[in-house]
Design a protein that fits this description.
By secondary structure, the protein is mainly alpha-helical. It has a domain of 61 residues. Helices cover 77% and strands 0% of the residues. Helix 16 runs antiparallel to helix 17 and helix 19 packs antiparallel against helix 20.
């Protein structure tokens, strides 16, 4: 008896396994026919599968096949039988109504749709399934009705907000979309981040200005109705920042600060930081100055003092020709700020910026030894300071090496570069140190050694270092091949070093010597670029613009063409007040040099100018 029972059990298991395997094979064949639009063959397989299992997936596939093969009656019978079996699946009424609608029986279809909505109970999943079915059928209006009725049934204003807002957006009913989001914030302020993400997506996914206009109007209306509601003011600041309307954002942030002094300053600080990151330096300066004016007792005073100086430093750095009066004022501010706040890991960036101003700020070779020594002392102080991150130490060592190179102490500069290269040989900062040492060898006319190091760096993980290494390597190799004596390359390297040291007139003499001594030379585009940079440093912007135009037009296939275009675009946008020409240069980079390192920045500036120009 025991053996008979075991045998019977084995046979049952074997039969079940074979049956399951057969069903799986049949399903795979049915799916194959369906995907290949052989719906008649798919029906032959899905019908027995569905009849045997009543599986919802097989139902849906069979329903689709009947409609695809023009068998509405079969589809109707299928749906009606399933409704009797599963009356709570209200989405089945949508299937039935869809059949009627396809047959032109619109009144019968609408009755089915209405019947489905009327049968809604307090089951949120049932409502969600029905709404999704309506949405899939292209009836967003009925999906909205479904959510609204379910919301009433459940007596909850906080459900289906995102679903309804999305449907209102699809229907172009932006006022109701905004109402959903802001009613949610009224009742559940903790959802601010979710609402901002949804609104940000809505703003980015469509070019319809009515969304931005609707959001602005809604915010203004709500702020007027609830002037003491900080959440609406914060949302207005957020929206203004999204639209890059930094001035209005700052106005609103100051309003928050006035009404809520215990926490409003944080919004002003946020506007300052975002404006600075977007190079809206005037707004950033105003914001930081507003916080600094609160006095040293303010908890944001420290960050604001540093932020204000960083913005002024960025403004000076952005200017190709230096205003000496502005520079003197800024240096005095750095001196007083560092004296007040002290030298610590928190003020390291201030110290670095101040050292840079002392060494290079005046843009010429008149930097005296006292200024250079003071700059070096600041950098040495950072290197010896405890608790400064190691990577920052490496960066400062490279900056100190640059300063030593600037002052003529090339051997000491090379030692510092070598220290960083050895200590961080597998990091980007190590690759940067290697590049600086290779460039120093180029300055010293050791071109073969410099090129061998640069060729290694062309495989660097840093795109910027790899690109710089490639440009310098090509400069050397092109002229090593054309000029076996390297006379012109030596002249150019000497002019390059003089330019770095701020000896602009001397650099020009050497660059002119190249053009005089060689009627034709591969260096000519580099010579023109260097002359353009010198003229920019001297504030002779129109001459620089002409030189850059010549490079971009006559050397369009050379490696410096995109550099010339981008430099010319910035020059016209920032110094020559010719945004139309700047936009043309940005556009040409995007069209002719799409893989350029400047492509992303050019696209951002082009879009910004496009929105402001006719």
């Amino acid at each position: 008896m025991m053996r008979l029972a075991v045998a019977t059990l084995f046979c049952c298991l074997l039969a079940a396994t074979l049956s399951s395997s057969a069903q799986e094979t049949t399903e795979q064949m049915a799916s194959y026919y369906y995907n290949n639009h052989e719906f008649d063959k798919a029906i032959e397989l899905y019908e027995p599968l569905y009849n045997r299992t009543q599986n919802s997936f097989y139902y849906q596939m069979l329903y689709n096949c009947y409609l695809e093969t023009g068998q509405p009656k079969e589809a109707e019978r299928l749906v009606e039988k399933r409704i009797k079996r599963y009356p709570r699946d209200l989405f089945l009424y949508v299937d039935l109504g869809t059949i009627y609608h396809k047959n032109g029986e619109r009144k019968k279809a609408e009755r089915q749709f209405s019947s489905a909505i009327s049968k809604l109970g307090r089951d949120s999943k049932q409502a969600n399934d029905l709404a999704v079915a309506f949405e899939n059928a292209g009836r967003n209006d009925l999906a909205i009705q479904t959510y609204l009725k379910s919301r009433d049934n459940l007596n909850s204003r906080l459900i289906y907000v995102m679903e309804l807002a999305t449907l209102y957006k699809k229907n172009g009913d932006y006022d109701k979309m905004m109402s959903e989001y802001f009613d949610l914030l009224d009742n559940a302020p903790g959802n601010t981040a979710s609402v901002q993400i949804a609104l940000q997506r809505a703003l980015s996914e469509t070019s319809d200005d009515r969304i931005a206009d609707g959001l602005r109007k809604t915010l203004i209306s709500r702020i007027r109705q609830h002037p003491d509601n900080q959440q609406y003011l914060d949302m207005m600041i957020w929206f203004s920042l999204q639209q890059k309307d930094f001035e209005f954002a700052l106005t609103q942030a100051k309003a928050v600060d006035a009404r809520f002094p215990d926490q409003g300053g944080l919004q002003v600080l946020r506007v300052a930081q975002i404006a600075a990151n977007n190079e809206a330096f005037d707004v950033a300066s105003q914001a930081y100055a507003h916080l600094v004016a609160k006095g040293s007792e303010s908890p944001l005073y420290f960050d604001s003092r540093i932020g204000l100086l960083n913005v002024k430093y960025a403004q000076i750095n952005q200017s190709h020709a230096v205003d000496n009066k502005m520079l003197d004022n800024l240096e005095r501010e750095y001196e007083s700020t560092i004296n007040e706040l002290g030298k610590s890991p928190k003020t390291v960036q201030l110290m670095r910026n101040y050292a840079h101003l002392l060494a290079y700020g005046n843009g010429n070779a008149n930097t005296d030894n006292a200024r250079l020594q003071k700059a070096a002392d600041l950098l040495y102080d950072i290197i010896e300071m405890p608790r400064v991150p190691q990577n920052t130490i490496y960066e400062v060592k490279l900056e100190l090496g640059d300063l030593l190179l600037f002052s003529g102490e090339t051997w000491d500069a090379s030692l510092l570069y070598g220290q960083v290269e050895k200590a961080a040989k597998n990091d980007v900062i190590g690759a940067m140190a290697k590049f600086k040492n290779a460039k120093l060898s180029y300055y010293n006319n050791d071109f073969s050694w410099a090129k061998s190091q640069l060729d290694v760096l062309r495989a660097s993980t840093s795109k910027l270092i790899a690109n710089d290494a490639m440009e310098l390597s090509l400069l050397i190799s092109d002229n090593m091949e054309e000029d076996s004596t390297y006379d012109m390359l030596e002249l150019y390297a000497a002019a390059d070093l003089m330019f770095y040291r701020g000896q602009l007139d001397s650099a020009l003499v050497l660059l002119d010597a190249i053009t005089i001594r060689a009627l034709s030379h591969p260096l000519f585009d580099e010579v023109l670029m260097q002359k353009a940079k010198i003229r920019m440093k001297q504030g002779r912007y129109n001459e620089a613009d002409s030189l850059l135009q010549f490079v971009a037009e006559h050397y369009a296939d050379d490696i410096l063409a995109d550099d010339a275009l981008f430099l010319r675009a910035e020059l016209n946008e920032q110094q020559l007040n010719n945004p139309a020409r700047a936009r043309e240069c940005y556009e040409r980079i995007l069209l002719d040099y799409p893989v350029s390192l400047y492509a992303d920045r050019a696209r951002k500036r082009y879009n910004a100018l496009k929105s402001t120009l006719p």
